[in-house]
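Last lecture ended with a question: if I hand you only a sequence, what can you say about the shape of the protein? Today we answer it with a concrete record. The protein is glycerophosphodiester phosphodiesterase. Below, first the input exactly as provided, then the predicted structure, then a couple of comments.
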Amino acid sequence: MPLPKRLAAAVLLSLIAAPALPAAAQTDNDDMLIIAHRGASGERPEHTLAAYERAIDQGADYIEPDLVVTSDGVLVARHENDISGTTDVASRKEFAGRERTKEVDGQLITGWFVEDFTLAELKTLRAKERLPGIRTANARFDGLYDIPTFAEIVSLLRAKEAETGRTIGVYPELKHPEFLLQEVGIDVVDLMVNELQKAGYDSADDAIFVQCFEVGPLQRLDKRTDVRLVQLMAAEGGPADEPAMRYAEMASASGLAEVAAYADAIGVDLVMIVGADGQATPLVGDAHDAGLEVHGWTLRKENVFLPAPFKSGGGESAVGNYAGFYGALAATGLDGIFTDDPALAARQ
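The predicted structure:
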């Protein structure tokens, strides 16, 4: 299911040697999708219905829920299966005995894990801001929202489509599927397929992408659904389910050709598209040559998240040159951008 190329290789090569574009010299890319990263998480606690609805109202093309699973097999939206930092679970005495230490994808983590709670139990918890030191204003919403299920997110999306008359996409990520299958016995691929069927997503033309950092789950999904699939890649490391693989090798010309056998796009760390020096890399052109779209993660407004050429004066939480970085990314022919601030992206 290859997708169309957006930029000729010759244009990309000319960009590699060019300096980063300042805000006043941005290159328009009207086709670049705005993907609301965990909702409008620059303004509301992430992965809440309030964050998703705000993102939709701000013009996001897609909203992105990371999906983990409850002990009774329900897909819910949290960035990680450890919910210590995104809910009030640590202050809930009734759940004090649920604290565990687990090895998740090679990392020891102590906390409270979604897969140890039923949906009914999880619904008693309340979301809180994950980065209160950076996004102090978001903390005023702590305790107001619960943890939504994927089905509830789709229901919100449908309601907003009816309200606005426009198509709104959803971009779920399967988190830690190998860990959940091997250690918990829950197959999130099966759960995802069931949810896709119930929601009526079955075609490459539907407004949905399903993403994962692992390889096997995407290959299995490719055999069971025609919706578009996205291989996520980080700047370092490799897929948890394929220890011999490195993302750097997967991002090479030959690696991208292999990815294109089961995926329609790649989702990559922005540093793989525009380096820390503000210079473009060949990745977008190489991926387009392989028939893959490229979606980059994650564009945020605060200095702490921006490359040096786009930082402003002030501390880590000060707003930097978001527009300039957006322009440099758009100039590469990037097909979509994950952002915590869809309102800012919509203005570019």
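Comments.
1. The longest helix spans residues 150-164.
2. The CA atoms of residues 67 and 175 lie 6 Å apart.
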